[in-house]
Amino acid sequence: QVQLVESGGGLVQAGGSLRLSCAASGSTFSTYGMGWFRQAPGKERELVAAISWTGGGTYYADSVEGRFTISRDNAKNTVSLQMNSLKPEDTAVYYCAADLKATALLMGMRRGSGINYWGKGTLVTVSS
């Protein structure tokens, strides 16, 4: 069992930055590909970024490429999402997710199917 707890959400003006963090329980964190999803009101959930369980590969949605950076620290059981140049359309609830032995490419292809564990989410609001 893995529990995921997100933090770092909040209100920010357009053009600003936020850093989301996800803390994972358990000793098997390093065996999970990790991803950040988001869901805006009235929209489908989408994969924003993912990082391979080996830490050797990343995936980004086109809408965030060049602005967001995903990273992981297996020693601390954490995965982070640095979000820069935020736009109002980035407003959403952001969820941390774990996918056993998944590469970033696979998580990008699956787009949510195959996820073993989800966090409860953290709200990011970007004002114009």
Short description:
By secondary structure, the chain is mainly β. Helices cover 5% and strands 48% of the residues.
Beta-strand content: over 45%
Structural Rg = 13 Å
Average of per-residue pLDDT values = 95
Query: Termini, distance in Å?
Result: 40 Å
Low-confidence regions = none
Which sheet architecture does the biggest sheet show? 7 strands, mixed
E-strand count = 11
User: What percent of the residues sit in helical stretches (DSSP H or I)?
Assistant: under 10%
Q: Helix/strand-derived class?
A: mainly beta
Shape: globular
Secondary-structure element series: EEEEEEEEEHEE
Helix tally?
A: 1
Written description of the protein model:
Strands 2, 4, 5, 6, 9, 10 and 11 form a seven-stranded mixed β-sheet that branches. A four-stranded antiparallel β-sheet has the order 1-3-8-7, with no helix packed on it. The mean pLDDT is 95. With 128 residues, it is mainly beta. The chain has one helix at 104-110, and strands spanning 4-7, 10-13, 18-24, 32-39, 46-51, 58-60, 68-73, 78-83, 92-100, 117-118, 122-127. The N and C termini lie far apart (40 Å).
Topology of helices and strands:
Blueprint: E1 4-7, E2 10-13, E3 18-24, E4 32-39, E5 46-51, E6 58-60, E7 68-73, E8 78-83, E9 92-100, H1 104-110, E10 117-118, E11 122-127
Parallel strand pairs: 2-11
Antiparallel strand pairs: 1-3, 3-8, 4-5, 4-9, 5-6, 7-8, 9-10, 9-11
